[in-house]
Automatic annotation (TrEMBL):
Transmembrane segments: none annotated. The keyword Methyltransferase applies. Residues 75-171 form the Methyltransferase type domain. GO terms for biological process: methylation. It comes from Frankia canadensis. The keyword Transferase applies. This is SAM-dependent methyltransferase. InterPro entries: Methyltransf_11 (IPR013216), Methyltransf_Superfamily (IPR050508), SAM-dependent_MTases_sf (IPR029063). Keywords: Methyltransferase, Transferase. One of its GO terms (molecular function) is S-adenosylmethionine-dependent methyltransferase activity.
Length: 275
């Protein structure tokens, strides 16, 4: 998100009610264009075959939120460069990774070539998964799709549909609280300046008025309701504190603001077991 008070060059932006097609198209445009730069900026921190949940640097190798993955079929949602999928493959999982953006999937193929670790990649929209009912054991996402779609309830329903009974769905996304704050990791980012209750999407437009970037918002209660409405069980919401000694900033994530408020939330859910 670009802030209107930090001095960053102002794009044509605003908070709008957007439909699913507009959000999908904006995300395609943005992530196709940004993929190479995103990987150049964050690739080393993410690790080419590692599972990093968030800019705080939380790793699945430490948290083990997905449970045992060896021998399980795991779906990575909004995989970007598919770093997480390659780590899961190294843990013995059967992995399928998908993303909306052909630019991001091209980066994932380049990583496959450089690491020698290949995982099946699919181009798909998280709101309409091209996978059979009850076909995966575990689904996961590190900031993939959920912060960008117009209808995250549809993503919850789709993931619940493709999960086998008893399967886990764990996803990280922007912490709902930071919707109120300027997009700044420092002191300026510690001011409430926008309504937490405004569910309209932050949207940037190009000169032709085309939406070219969008981020969407749900309150913490909205997230819980969407998970429950999809028939999933919510086990935990992790709100990571900023780790001591981690100086690296990532957009609005950083040690200064991180001392006071969480910027990431990780939702740990599962589909109930069959009776
Ligand atoms: C912040 S990146 C995260 C990528 C990767 N998980 C990581 O940690 O680097 C967000 C990703 O979500 C993808 N994305 C956005 N909207 C999507 C959608 N509707 N369906 C699938 N992927 C989507 C983007 O293309 C992008 O690769």
């Amino acid at each position: 998100m670009t802030d209107d008070v930090t001095g960053a060059p102002p794009p044509a932006y605003g908070y709008l009610d957007i439909d699913a097609d507009t959000a999908r198209s904006a995300s395609r445009i943005y992530w196709d264009d940004a993929a190479a730069e995103y990987q150049a900026e964050h690739g080393e921190f993410l690790g080419d075959s590692d599972f990093c949940w968030s800019p705080e640097g939380l790793r699945e190798s430490d948290l083990r939120l997905l449970g045992e993955v060896a021998g399980r079929t795991v779906l990575e949602v909004g995989c970007g460069g598919a770093q997480c999928a390659r780590w899961l493959r190294g843990q013995g999982a059967r992995v399928v990774a998908f993303d909306l953006s052909s630019g991001q999937l091209a980066q994932a193929r380049a990583y496959a070539a450089s690491t020698g670790v290949d995982v099946p990649l699919v181009q798909a929209d998280a709101m309409a998964l091209p996978f059979a009912d009850a076909s995966v054991d575990v689904a996961c996402s590190a900031f993939g799709a959920v912060p960008f779609v117009a209808d995250s309830a549809a993503v919850m329903r789709e993931v619940a549909r493709v999960l086998r009974p008893g399967g886990r769905w764990v996803f990280s996304t922007t912490h709902p609280f930071v919707w109120c704050l300027p997009d700044d990791p420092d002191d300026n980012g510690l001011r409430v300046y926008h309504s937490y209750f405004d569910r309209r999407a932050y949207t940037e437009h190009d000169d032709q008025g085309r939406a070219v970037y969008t981020e969407t918002h749900r309150t913490i209660g909205d997230r819980v309701r969407e998970i429950v409405a999809a028939g999933l069980v919510l086990h935990d919401i992790i709100e990571p504190e900023w780790p001591a000694g981690q100086d690296r900033t990532w957009g609005q994530w950083g040690p200064r603001r991180g001392e006071y408020v969480p910027s990431t939330s990780i939702f740990v859910t599962s589909r109930p077991p069959a009776r």
